[in-house]
Design brief:
It is a single chain. 38% of the residues lie in helices and 25% in strands. Strand 1 (11-19) and strand 2 (22-25) form a beta hairpin. Strands 1-4-5-6-7-10-11-12 form an eight-stranded parallel barrel, surrounded by seven helices. By secondary structure, the protein is an alpha/beta fold. The radius of gyration is 17 Å and the shape is globular.
Length: 248
Amino acid sequence: MSEFNKTPGLVLLPAVDVAGGKAVRLTKGEAGTETSYGDPVDAAVDWADQGAEWIHLVDLDAAFGRGSNGGILKKVIRQVRGVNVELSGGIRDDESLEHALEIGAKRINLGTAALENPEWAASVIAQYGEAIAVGLDVRGTTLAARGWTKDGGDLWQVMDRLEEAGAARYVVTDVTKDGTLQGPNIALLRQVMERTERPVVASGGISSLDDIVALRELVPLGLEGTIVGKALYAGAFTLTEALDVASR
């Protein structure tokens, strides 16, 4: 019976953030802090080869409202067939949402639109269900929108509305931790999970395998997965090593 009682593993989503056609990482989500890591397709294929079941793919130019990397996103998804892709960045209306699903994204991560256009967000949550995750990007308890350049309201008020709308999943990022390699905000994740029965995906700050162990311990509370970015690109550990720790 022990096999049936085993807590599921932590799902890892290695990140591929695209700006100006390159795979990049930002510090605290700020434009101008990009460190380039080369071809996004190469990065995604590398994660797939190391065993990734999911990839978190972000169009940073679309998120900041300064352009699109649509052709590259399509190429990335095509090159990693068999790996689920969660797509984020600039998806704010029916056309961009439908296009993202058409090019093969398994799940869409709504950010700004869920904050600025609650009626539309509620309608697509109702229509697409599990294919929609809502990104809650937070500084303290204030949400960040428009590529993290504008305030997006109070976290708890927005969560109450999203719970009512039936949001299937939340991706929670502590903006002050993102890209800093300072460890995840465990307290924030616990607070969010206390307010929802929906699965939560963590993002921001992972620096070591110990951080993944700490997040793995939150799985019984409702943490489903975590996005891993800069630590992988900086070589703090390999995805293979992280997947091993996350599945124990």
